[in-house]
Amino acid sequence: MLREASRQAARERDRRRARRAWARIQRTGQTSVARRLVDPREAGKPRDPSADEAQAAALRPEARWRAIASPAGIAFTALLVLLLAWPYVLPGFDASRFRDVQVILWAAIVVTGLNLVAGYTGQLSLGQKIFVLVGGYTAAVMTTRFGGLLGNPWLAMVLAVLIGMGVGALLGLPALRVKGAYLAIVTLAFVPIFFRIFASELFRGIFNGLQGISDVTTPVGNPARPPVHPLTFPFTGRAVTDVDFYVFTVVLFGALIFLARNLVKSRWGRAMMAIRESEIAAKSSGVRVYRVKVGAFMISAAYASLAGALSTLVVAYISPEQVPAVHIRDSFTYVVMMIVGGTGTLAGPILGSVTIQIIRTLTSGLLKLQTVILALLALVTVYTAPSGQVGVFKDRMERRRARRQKGKIEEVVLPRLPEPLVLPRPRAEAARAGEIVLETREMSKIFGGLRANDKVSIQVRKGTVHSLIGPNGSGKTTFINVVTGVYQPEEGEVSFAGERIDGKPAFVTVERGMGRTFQNLQLWRRMTVLQNVEVGLHVRALAGFLGNMVRTPLARREEAEIRTRALGLLQFVGLDRYAGLLAGQLPYGPQRYLEIARALALDPILLILDEPAAGLNPAEVHDLMGLIQRIKETGITVFLIEHHMDLVMGVSDRISVLDYGRKIADGTPAEVQADQRVVEAYLGAEFAEATA
Known about the structure:
Helix content: 55-70%
Number of helices: 29
Low-confidence stretches: 24-52
Mean pLDDT: 82
Strand content: 5-15%
Shape: elongated
Largest sheet: 6 strands, mixed
């Protein structure tokens, strides 16, 4: 009852607004408004003769040393130097602490991989110990069951990573079709399954059942006798000492953290964070959500498998324990480390691993209570510091910065970019799209017994602003969701750029040149303004996961191009000075402009704007009119869904009208505003009769 009353009130409010706008249009005869064809900031400026040089400079890749020269890079480099120097020159080196530090490094590697899935992609996995066992058993089996090259421990570590990624893909392909708590339950259910595999008598010849494998090649020997199967340096034959292997582990740890950093700073990392914030917005920006999830899951499995192989080669023993509950506890411990350190941060896994290892060392006499203590610590952290230790530090720094700025929004003055990097442009496929960019033929979308769209046929012509209007509940947003691939139509056809797209997923429409905004803002509020637009450029790059992790020349060049192009589009909509702010810190009006800039990043043939003027004040609506016209002048076709009649009549070349899911009118603004069916739909039959 309350919901229906709210809907009636909304319809009545829209009717009053439409009546006032209609009366104003009829009184003034105004069907267009003054349009800003060019950016006033660029008016009258002569073209820079060195524009080509400026463009080349803007697209130049960032130097590799910049990552290390940042404050975080300097701090991490100092940590690595201390870890490497500890066995040689620093005090406090003894056997027990030596093993504790290695345990922390192994755990930090596992949690870093987990953080890529849970912290950055938002897909909580409770089965990380599975991959630790897979890596450990791979190293153990290869070094004890094979000789020669196949029994080489260094090759075994490589195979542990590859097999771990394969198992990750095998588990991730079905598991990642669910999300949230369901994914956590599914991954947790895999733990006892793998316990049964490793402990099974059927595979005793390989895994040796519950007794495990105890003669693994190792650099660590008993003081009274050397290891039975010593680990040697490749091509030298010299035995590796425990300190040598520790140095190797520290270097490998640093490399893995650096690779993870490269990934999260790349287009794939931004895609992962976009999925975490809003999957529907990620799909509409061209991100293949399922592929990104599976890729992140495989990399996470590789990290855990490598940590399992490292620990097995040091301990020289691995077994499935006696009960699967042990592995469930260990998987839970990895999650606690991530939460305590800081979910979705690079430093979080390191701090969390150090903190939990210290607590476990201090409570070593309370083994039965350790799990309870860790659970309480996780609950307290979630309640008091949801962002973990790293989040607490960042919050303090942010409050200090806010006090210095006295509540003002930080603006950064960026250099003006050359015009080719600023103006949006339709992609080259637009020239082959034909005169009709978008067409629906007798298209229907049915929810149960309700026809939200009933045999709707609309043609959108190239280079025009085509508006779709109608009362609340008339099916406008449903129409857009069908066109963009969010919904599939039950009847009819949808064609875009001369090809049928009905039944195709959302990323296909994006890849073919269709960008959109949303009626309810779908920004990634915890990402910066610049990152929001950069995600829109995801589909325009080619480098894959591994290419971005190692920062190949292609990946570095693409990152520079993405960043520069995103800054240019922010400059086009007037938000370049806010590039470094979180999107959630922007006022409502600029957030609307940011969503438009993100859609323009696709270089769309067709730009769909779903009620972009909602919530804007009159001055912002006037600016929006100019922005839409400037977009049209670039050659991009605009499809506008809007209730604001001044905006619709001011920018539209053609208007279609829906009512109760059916198209009731189609024509120029003057033709539509004179159509009695439209007047009746918006203002009621009584008003239509009175004005007839």
